[in-house]
Amino acid sequence: RKVKMHIDKKIWIDVETTGFSATKNDIWQIAILLDVNRELVSKEVFNFQPADWDSISDKALEVTGMDREKLKTFSPLSIAVPLVIKYLQECVDHGPDSVLGVFSGHNTEFDWKFVRAFLEKHTRERMEDFFVIDFPIDTKKIAKDLELVKKKLISDHKLQTLTEYYKVEHKAHDALSDILATREIYYLMGGHIDKS
């Protein structure tokens, strides 16, 4: 039986997508980090083909430097989906008890919607199988709470802006680089817990 919450386990997630609508568009890259007691225990990145090739936004691909031909070289969903689910389950099972992780990232509302849609479209699993549902950790929200813009320390709450402010190495719009930078920023911010 899974324990409902354990704040020392964070599952950091970032996705790259074929557009901006979680119902219409698909994830093509997902990076997942397992963080237990402030230690990076493991990390995985999965690249896979989208389910709906007709709904791809060329603008969204352009932002990430991706194109349709490169997407065709990635694993089909039939191979990728079980691997993503297996890794998420390994994150939950890590440690002496099966403990759900706190969904963590930057602008988590976006990633949450896409991961939820991914699970609903391709699996029987739900967000509640892997994540504490009550509150995510969101570095964008924490930056707002710290009033960094109001204090004129930064111009906006974008991840790129925060990486520059905190001097964190980062290759924008690569899910693994984004989420590693997000995790580092979180701890540089003092590891505040976002309970919104």
In short:
The protein contains seven helices and five strands. It is of the alpha/beta class and 196 residues long. The chain has a five-stranded mixed beta sheet, sandwiched between helices.
Report the strand count.
Answer: 5
The largest beta-sheet arranges its strands as 3-2-1-4-5
Radius of gyration: 16 Å
Question: Given the structure, what is the number of helices?
Answer: 7
Shape: globular
Mean pLDDT: 92
Helix/strand class: alpha/beta
Low-pLDDT residue spans: 3-7
Major sheet details? 5 strands, mixed
Q: In whole angstroms, how far apart are the ends?
A: 27 Å
- Helical proportion? 25-40%
Write the H/E string, N to C.
EEEHHHEHEHHH
Q: Describe the oligomeric state of these chains in a short phrase.
A: single chain
Strand content: 15-25%
